[in-house]
Design a protein that fits this description.
The complex is a heterodimer of chains A (about 575) and B (about 90).
Chain A: E1 8-9, E2 11-13, E3 17-24, H1 41-66, H2 68-81, H3 84-95, H4 100-118, H5 120-141, E4 155-159, H6 164-168, E5 175-180, H7 188-196, E6 199-202, E7 215-219, E8 224-226, H8 231-249, E9 265-269, H9 275-280, E10 285-290, H10 304-317, E11 322-326, H11 354-359, H12 361-376, E12 381-386, H13 392-404, E13 409-414, H14 417-421, H15 423-426, E14 432-435, H16 437-445, H17 463-479, E15 483-485, H18 493-501, E16 506-509, H19 514-521, H20 526-537, H21 542-563
Parallel strand pairs in A: 3-4, 4-5, 5-6, 9-10, 9-16, 10-11, 11-12, 12-13, 13-14, 14-15, 15-16
Antiparallel strand pairs in A: 1-8, 2-6, 3-7, 7-8
Chain B: E1 2-7, H1 16-29, E2 33-37, E3 40-43, H2 47-53, E4 60-65, H3 70-81
Antiparallel strand pairs in B: 1-4, 2-3, 2-4
Helix pairs in contact in B: 1-3
Chain lengths: ~575, ~90
């Protein structure tokens, strides 16, 4: 065994394993020191002009490579590097005797502070300015611009946490695994890892102390990073990786428990492009189709016709299968200026989900109309659900409006504890419920899911969260309505079994998680799943619940093997 | 020398994307163009200046330039600002 004292522990995402050399995400450049230029203002001016032009050209090139929405953002960044007002400011600082590095740093910082003080949308542009500033300074110093490493060999990326801007340009084919020192199971890194089936351990304290090119084993099941694996350990890991790859290629069938109880396994999708890969991985339909992609990057809502075209493509790809579409879910982590641009102290508790749609009913009406039209023109089984429903009254509102506009099956998402507790009143007024475990966990534990400092609370294994899921499951059985799960919890194979034990009738997840969940479900009967649920509910904490169910499950698996 | 007064038509104001497109138009003209709102005058080729000005839908601005084909250039730029780029 390697020196276990040095092994790192965090939260593993998925069930994968990876072995390889690590590369660290470069740290931001240090602030240039404020010393007097030794070469004089004129020479510094020439240096600055060259660095600004080269940086702008480099950013434009990256924009062309990235395409799409990233190109617009990067084009705007290129104009920032070429900005004449900024250049004047830099030149004035050079005339005062500053070095090129310091003058660039100060000029960008001044603009950044100005934008930050304006708040809201302007404040977000401050991040762009920081990025441009770092790139210009790196160019002046002749060092690598901070950014994603791009070596010629596969590697394990180690970072504090990854931002969408970092991952947009990441060559995922070369990334064996992601390890972060900060961030929790719902951080951007974790979501990316689940979506792309990349092995990841997040929140592994001490990860930043690892040296580049050091070989490590990343074990997502155990949530560990072994920092000095022996050759034997590396070989064993490689064998496990090969065995998993073989299992993933095995033929797929519908999701079912050991006793034959059918548990449809559905895909969470965020765009139409994901449809074919999801079907290839054995998705029996779509359990959560996020429609935000149609609205993000847009300054206005798309027209009925524009939406209808996309929905028709989606429903055509899933002909004969169930497709659950979520109405636009804006707010909190995904603000849309045309829905709500009022600054809020607590966006997660603000005008979001169905609340925001209701305040902008024409947008909701357009979306439901486009969906109904697409449904009429295709053969998929379309279900539509409202995000973040809190009350019976909201349920009635949405069901009535959806029916009026021609939606045949309308449901609600249960993400708010109030809705879970009153599921027996809510379900009679709707066709189905789908539990969004990420938000349900956030609201139950009162911990912002985007905030690293409270990430440890964001664990759907928490018995309080499971009890709420159980309430909804029980209500579903009592009124005879389906209860799906469409949060990240369904992608955790053992937790998926517990959720079925609590009454979930279908599970929806990132397509990459389907194979592992399918395998796990097939190991247990419905009775056993219910026993696991009882065990988890009687635990005192998320950690205890996970450990207790794991123990019960492995004793069953051992017994099964012995009896064969 | 030419001047044009124009009202910002974009529903969400001149935020980063339309500002970026506008700067592209100004740069293409090759002329030094000034943009004035109220007391404040700035270089119209400055995306940071434009963003910091926080131009909103309905804001009245004046464009000014000297040089060749000043009228033609300003007609084009005024038309750009007078178009709703959020539509």
């Amino acid at each position: 065994m390697s020196d276990t004292a040095e092994d790192l522990t965090g939260v593993g995402i998925g069930r994968g394993l990876a072995v390889g050399p690590i590369l660290r995400m470069p740290e931001p450049l240090p602030e240039p020191t404020d010393v007097t230029s030794t070469i004089g203002a004129d020479a510094e001016k020439v240096r600055v002009a060259g660095a600004l032009a080269a940086t702008a050209a480099d950013i434009r090139l990256r924009g062309q490579r990235a395409g799409g929405a990233a190109k617009d953002v990067l084009d705007a960044q290129a104009f920032m590097a070429e900005d004449p007002t900024l250049k004047d400011d830099v030149d004035a600082r050079l005339a005062a005797g500053k070095t090129a590095e310091r003058a660039v740093y100060e000029a960008f910082a001044a603009f950044r502070d100005l934008l930050t003080s304006m708040g809201g949308y302007m404040g977000e542009r401050a991040t762009d300015l920081n990025d441009v500033s770092q790139r210009v300074v790196a160019h002046l110093q002749g060092v690598a611009a901070p950014g994603v490493p791009d070596p010629s060999y596969p590697f394990i990326l180690v970072a504090r946490d990854l931002a969408p801007a970092d991952t947009a340009l990441l060559d995922l084919d070369k990334v064996l695994a992601l390890v972060t020192s900060d961030g929790g199971p719902t951080s951007h890194t974790a979501i990316l890892a689940r979506e792309k089936a990349i092995v990841a351990v997040v929140g592994a304290a001490g990860a930043l102390e690892l040296a580049d090119d050091q070989i490590v084993i990343v074990d997502a099941v155990a949530g560990t990073v072994s920092v000095a694996p022996t050759e034997a350990e590396q070989k064993a890991a490689a064998a496990t990786i090969a065995a998993r790859a073989a299992a993933a290629d095995a033929p797929v069938g519908p999701g079912a428990l050991a006793d034959g109880t059918h548990v449809p396994l559905l895909a969470n999708l965020g765009s139409v492009d994901g449809a074919l890969p999801a079907i290839e991985k054995g998705a029996e339909g779509v359990g959560l189709f996020r429609t935000e992609f149609l609205f993000l990057d847009a300054d206005r809502a798309p027209t009925v016709e524009e939406q209808q075209e996309k929905y028709t493509q989606l429903l055509t790809a899933f002909a004969g299968k169930k497709v659950v579409v979520r109405a636009l879910d804006a707010g909190a982590d995904k603000p849309l200026s045309f829905l709500n641009d009022e600054p809020e102290e607590n966006p997660a508790l603000g005008l979001r989900g169905l609340r925001a749609l209701r305040a902008n009913e024409p947008i909701l009406r357009d979306q439901l109309t486009a969906l109904a039209n697409a449904d009429a023109a295709t053969d998929a089984e379309l279900w539509v659900m409202a995000p973040m429903v809190s009350t019976v009254e909201e349920t009635r509102y949405f069901t009535k409006l959806a029916r009026e506009l021609g939606i045949k099956t309308a449901g609600v998402m249960i993400e708010v504890p109030a809705a879970a507790l009153l599921a027996d009143r809510i379900l009679p007024d709707t066709d189905f419920a789908s539990i969004g475990t990420n938000d349900l966990t956030q609201y139950t534990l009162a911990a912002d899911r985007l905030l690293g400092s409270v990430a440890s609370f964001q664990d759907p294994w928490h018995p309080a969260v499971l009890r709420l899921v159980g309430e909804v499951g029980r209500a579903g059985v009592a009124v005879g309505k389906p209860v799906g799960i469409c949060g990240e919890a369904a992608a955790d194979p053992l937790l998926a079994v517990v959720l079925v034990g609590l009454g979930a009738t279908s599970l929806s997840m990132s397509p990459a998680a389907l194979a592992d969940v399918r395998t796990e479900l097939a190991r247990y009967t419905l009775q056993q799943a219910k026993e696991f649920a009882e065990i988890a509910l009687s635990a005192d904490s998320a950690v205890e619940a996970r450990v207790a169910v794991l123990a019960a499950a492995s004793s069953l698996t051992t017994n099964n093997t012995e009896s064969e | 020398m030419a001047d044009r007064s124009v009202t910002i038509a974009s529903v969400n104001g001149l935020h980063a994307r339309p500002a970026s497109l506008f700067v592209q138009e100004v740069t293409k003209s090759g002329l030094a163009v000034e943009l004035t709102r109220g007391e404040k005058t700035m270089n119209a080729a400055s995306i940071l200046g434009l963003i910091a000005l926080g131009l909103q839908h309905g804001d009245e601005v004046t464009l000014h330039t000297d040089g060749d084909d000043a009228d033609g250039v300003l007609d084009g730029l005024a038309a750009f600002l007078g178009t709703d780029h959020d539509a």
